[in-house]
Write a structure and sequence with these properties.
The complex is a heterodimer of chains A (269) and B (241).
Chain A: H1 2-39, H2 51-64, H3 66-98, H4 100-114, H5 122-129, H6 133-157, H7 161-169, H8 174-211, H9 217-226, H10 230-258, H11 260-263
Chain B: E1 5-16, E2 19-30, E3 34-38, H1 45-53, E4 60-65, E5 74-77, H2 89-94, H3 102-112, H4 128-140, E6 146-150, H5 158-174, E7 178-182, H6 186-192, E8 195-200, E9 203-209, H7 216-231, H8 233-240
Parallel strand pairs in B: 3-7, 3-8, 5-6, 6-7
Antiparallel strand pairs in B: 1-2, 1-4, 8-9
The chains are: A mainly alpha (269), B alpha/beta (241).
């Protein structure tokens, strides 16, 4: 019995790192295959430079300060755009979710605007705001507003009516009802919206910086394309992928922190 | 309203558009009395309870609760536990209370429902019976004078149900609570209540006083009589034939 327990413990110790490493397996194999293909000459460097060359380019651009400068500008645009768009989306979702009159007044129009691809607004935004910071931030804000709006609205309007009734039977005030019942109940859906908005945020920024910018990661990629600098183009794509992954991890951490109750197991029963 | 009266229902009618849910309901419930409302589905039991709780308003008639007619002396327990899944048990108990010594009181009540070790648990870690015990403890948090029970034991298994019945009876007697229980289970009503009110076709048309300290035989007799009133004697004979 003792032996089997020890074996089970050993097995668990062995299994845990494997499950943690498993998601990295495919990217590692792909990068290795890519590197081998480049070394053996199966892939021309003008088509796809080797991962090592991209890494060296990254180090060179970091040392020169170009990569950190453009990265920080892109991060600034993404964060400010998300805060504005997410904030407006949350407020609209909140008022439409809470008030039937506001829902009737605003929701139909918002749904109409939501169906316009926000990237189609680029020419209009450039004409209105030029190619300065506000143009790119506005585009990110418009792109991120709708996922947050839809999910906040849906989250609030689909709160279990039984819980609302329970709150009424406890004579909760309107603010108590919101903070103690409605907001926590809607939070999982709101966080789904934020996570989705993070994806839209990077997509929008890439396009905005590629088309109309004089700085940022998108600009770096576009500039590198003009000089046929394939290493930098690939580097920029990799940077976007890493930023996207980091955003997703941050969103996931928030979810596990704020929604601990969803994942708490039934092992204690 | 007489001196011993806690809830007085006078000529209450409730309409939902063209549908009559309650028609000319009159009922007087004394302080500390345990009333069971029984009857077929659609008879208006739950509607009457919701009107008493103040969750809905009667179309006409009046419901007076206590001397001040205040709903804050009442607490309601529903068929579903309605615990807030994002709060642990202790927070679920204290969320509706304005008292400063809330946590200490909550712990006392958790001990009362024999779940003192579960204060840090989330509702999804509890069984159905445990959740209903927590819901009962939460209903008692504000020291109510009236307890409204809307089929709170309907979803429980027979054994847990019996334990919960004993617990509710014990709490109601010790705290001298005026209690109204809505149930489909005539045996449950006969076992727990001082008085059974049968609701049929939107009104209260029959009342049965239950003997004190009744034994199983007396419970059976009361339950049979009430069932007779609900279904009608012919229906009972048809079923037993």
């Amino acid at each position: 019995m003792q032996d089997s327990l020890t074996i089970a413990r050993k097995k668990r110790k062995f299994v845990l790192p494997v499950t943690k490493l498993l998601p990295f397996l495919l990217p590692i194999i792909l990068i290795l295959f890519w590197q081998v293909s480049s070394t053996l000459g199966w892939l021309s460097s003008s088509v796809l430079p080797s991962p090592l060359a991209v890494l060296q380019d990254g180090i060179k651009l970091t040392q020169s300060g170009e990569l950190p400068k453009n990265l920080s500008i892109s991060l600034y645009r993404a964060t400010v755009g998300l805060l504005i768009g997410g904030g407006v989306g949350f407020i609209l979702g909140f008022i439409n979710g809470m008030s039937k009159t506001c829902r009737l007044l605003f929701d139909s129009s918002i749904q109409m605007f939501r169906n316009i691809p926000h990237l189609a607004l680029i020419p209009l935004i450039i004409l209105w705001l030029g190619i300065n910071e506000s143009a790119k931030i506005s585009l990110v804000a418009i792109g991120t507003m709708f996922p947050v709006y839809i999910n906040t609205f849906h989250g609030i309007s689909s709160v279990d009516p039984d819980l609302i009734e329970m709150g009424k039977s406890y004579e909760l005030s309107k603010s108590q009802m919101f903070f103690k019942i409605i907001f926590p109940a809607a939070l999982p859906q709101i966080l789904v919206g934020i996570r989705y908005a993070l994806g839209v945020m990077w997509t929008t920024l890439i396009v905005a910086e590629t088309i109309s910018a004089s700085s940022g990661i998108g600009y770096m990629a576009n500039n590198a394309e003009d000089f046929m600098d394939m290493e930098t183009v690939i580097l920029c794509i990799v940077v976007y992928a890493i930023l996207g992954k980091i955003s997703d991890l941050v969103a996931k951490s928030f979810e596990s922190l704020l929604l601990e109750w969803q994942t708490t197991g039934r092992s204690n029963v | 309203m007489n001196k011993n009266s806690m809830i007085e229902i006078k000529n209450v009618n409730k309409m939902y558009q063209d549908l009559t849910a309650l028609e000319n309901v009159n009922l007087n419930i004394n302080q500390g009395e345990f009333i069971a409302l029984v009857g077929m589905s659609g008879g208006g039991k739950s509607t009457l309870l919701r009107l008493i709780a103040g969750l809905e308003k009667p179309t006409s008639g009046s419901i007076t609760v206590g001397e001040d007619n205040s709903r804050s002396i009442m607490r309601m327990m529903f068929q579903e536990d309605r615990l807030l899944p994002w709060m642990n048990v202790l927070d679920n108990l204290s969320f509706g209370s304005k008292d400063k010594n809330t946590k200490a009181h909550a712990k006392e009540l958790l001990d009362l429902v024999e779940l003192g070790d579960y204060a840090d648990h989330f509702p999804n870690q509890l069984s159905g019976g445990q959740k209903q015990r927590i819901a009962l403890a939460r209903a008692l948090m504000t020291n109510p004078k009236v307890l409204l029970l809307d089929e709170p034991l309907g979803a429980l298994d027979a054994l847990t149900r019996r334990k919960m019945q004993d617990l509710i009876l014990d709490v109601c007697q010790k705290q001298h609570l005026t209690t109204i229980l809505v149930t489909h289970d005539v045996d449950e009503a006969a076992r727990m209540a001082d008085r059974i009110v049968v609701m049929k076709e939107s009104t209260n048309y029959y009342e049965e006083d239950c003997p004190k300290n009744r034994n199983a035989g007396q419970i059976g007799i009361v339950a049979d009589r009430v069932l007779n009133e609900i279904l009608g004697e012919k229906e009972i004979q048809k079923q037993t034939a």
